[in-house]
Design goal:
- The protein is α+β, with helices and mostly antiparallel strands and 388 residues long.
- It folds into three domains: 114 residues, Alpha-Beta Plaits (2-Layer Sandwich); 82 residues, Hypothetical Protein Yqey, Chain: A, domain1, CATH 1.10.1510.30; 94 residues, TruD, catalytic domain (Pseudouridine synthase, 2-Layer Sandwich), CATH 3.30.2350.20.
- Helix content is 32%, strand content 22%.
- It contains twelve helices and 14 strands.
- The strands form three sheets. Strands 1, 2, 3, 4, 5, 6, 13 and 14 form an eight-stranded mixed β-sheet that branches. The protein has a four-stranded antiparallel β-sheet with strand order 9-8-10-11.
- Helix 4 crosses helix 10 and helix 6 packs antiparallel against helix 7.
Length: 388
């Protein structure tokens, strides 16, 4: 239960009843909004094809895999600036290495469209976007206090990490991350494989429970559904190499392992931010103000005033007393983030603004429109309005 910045009564209601209720349009580094249904083109040359991907009810990773399959190539040739929601209609820029523009434009996939393409000298890098513009329909809500909440927020909201950060169904990503940071590899793997809390698929639930009871990895290979690819990778290795828990994690993509560590860092950030909202947010030791780029906070621009940049704790983080106390609650120090037992996923820490702008906010009864900076969650912004 994280604290709210506003005190006016919530609207209630539900998000993402259907994809059409959640529209997300990426804002490129130059401020260009990749509007839904609009075609884009640019002059350019080079080994990379950049294209604007519009998708409906697809995750970013799934659609990239499908495009790669249709083009008979590897998904590793594709790069994006970030992932977009699945239950939504979204746009985003994608780059493809040495894949002809014509082949991209000829793609025909259900609920997917390519809104223009061009050649470029370099790939798209993770985080290479300013933000996203949202149009959100809030269903079954009483919107009578929406204006009062907006007035209290005054164009900003708590920059919490949204629930997606912690797992879409089982929501155990931060717990797995915590165990990895503690060096408890077997326990981390057990939670990842066997925890069925929130599991929606009945076959998956039964397979997880069976493995928890028997510890039989060879049997688990027969029982775990094929779609649980990451789980099956671990199980296959452990069936052939009993007890080699740390080594089994080498079968995971580094990016996936980092998700667990980042989820725990996000949990710490949310806990601190909630406490500070109840106390009143002021600059604390080791923090700084940042300025803006095209109206969005830019943590790379230190300034005399602006947005307070708090910490995502890592092994290089200069800790103040509040942060030390928080880590002590988990029997940790910042040295845990060096991950000596798995150094490839060590995390040095970084900064994130404590509050984020609710830019160009408008609402018409139950339809909400606003833009958010890269890394901020629309679900966190809407949480202030819904309040449970």
């Amino acid at each position: 239960m994280m604290n709210y910045l506003s005190t006016a009564p919530g609207l209630g209601g539900t998000l993402k009843t259907k994809p059409e209720d959640f529209l997300v349009e990426e804002i490129g580094p130059d401020g260009t909004i990749y509007e839904i249904g609009k075609q884009f083109s640019r002059p350019g040359s080079g080994d990379f094809t950049h294209f604007i991907l519009q998708k409906k009810d697809w995750s970013t990773s799934s659609v990239i895999l499908e495009i790669a399959k249709r083009l008979n190539t590897s998904h590793k040739r594709f790069n994006t600036a970030g992932t977009k929601d699945k239950v939504a209609i979204t746009t985003q820029a994608v780059s493809a290495f040495r894949i002809p523009m014509e082949k991209i434009l000829e793609l025909r996939i259900k609920d997917i469209s390519i809104n223009g393409a061009w050649n470029a000298e370099d790939k798209i890098h993770m985080g290479e976007l300013l933000g996203n513009r949202f149009t959100i329909t809030l269903n079954d809500a009483d919107c009578s206090s929406a204006d009062a909440i907006a007035d209290e927020l005054a164009g900003k909201f708590p920059n919490y990490f949204g629930e997606q950060r912690f797992g879409t169904t089982r929501k155990n990503t931060a717990i797995v991350g915590q165990r990895l940071l503690e060096g408890k590899m077997e326990e981390a793997i057990s939670i990842f494989l066997c925890d069925s809390t929130g599991e929606e698929n009945e076959l998956s639930k039964q397979a997880r429970a069976s493995l928890a009871e028997t510890g039989d990895y060879k049997k688990a290979m027969r029982e775990f559904p094929k779609y649980l690819r990451l789980e099956r990778k671990l199980i296959s290795y452990l069936a052939e190499h009993p007890g080699k828990f740390r080594e089994s994690l080498k079968n995971f993509p580094r990016s996936t392992l980092l998700l667990f560590i980042h989820a725990f860092q996000s949990k710490l950030f949310n806990m601190q931010l909630s406490d500070r909202i109840s106390e009143g947010i002021e600059l604390e030791e080791g923090e700084y103000f940042c300025g803006e780029t095209l109206g969005f906070p830019d943590v790379k621009k230190a300034d005399a005033e602006g947005w307070i940049c708090g910490k995502l704790i890592g092994y290089q983080t200069p800790l103040n007393s509040r942060e030390k106390e928080l880590l002590e609650k988990f029997n940790m120090t910042k040295e845990n983030f060096r991950m000596k037992h798995l150094p490839e996923i060590a995390s040095k820490g970084t900064y994130r603004t404590l509050l984020a702008p609710l830019k160009d906010f408008k609402h018409d009864n139950n339809i909400f429109r606003f833009a958010l900076p890269s890394g901020s969650y629309a679900t966190a912004a809407m949480r202030e309005f819904i309040k449970g």
